Amino acid sequence: MPDRYVLTLATALASNTSGPFTATWDRAVVPSTGTLRRAWAVATSITSNTTQNTVDVFAQTDAPAAGSNTATTVLVSPITLVNNRDAVEGTIRHSGARVIAGDVLELRTNMSNAGSQPGFLGLTATIEVERD
After folding, report:
1. Does the domain at residues 4-131 carry the CATH identifier 2.60.120.230?
2. Rounded Cα–Cα distance for residues 87 and 81 (Å)
3. What is the DSSP letter of 89?
4. Does this model's pTM top 0.85?
5. Cβ distance 98 to 20 under 8 Å?
């Protein structure tokens, strides 16, 4: 079994209709307990390079209470994307940040684009996890 694996979170488009980091564009269940090591984000198209275009990955523990949103970011700060197709690496919040099998990673965004206009097209975030 490989000592590391990646989880990919992706969406065809993301807009800012729900406000900063509130809409979850994709989710991935963590298959195996481990330590978060690296994170990247890339978009095939970004609305504008003069506005705020940020991507974040949140972790939600397995089986939260009904209706609760206790997800927290796994990054020191959101990843800012400026150019189309540029892969940008983020920094994991804690060097020993852990996920447990059954946790859920969520792709969230914040853009300063107007209303429901897409801020990102073809957005992907990738998280590398070192297996226990």
Report:
1. yes
2. 8
3. E
4. yes
5. no
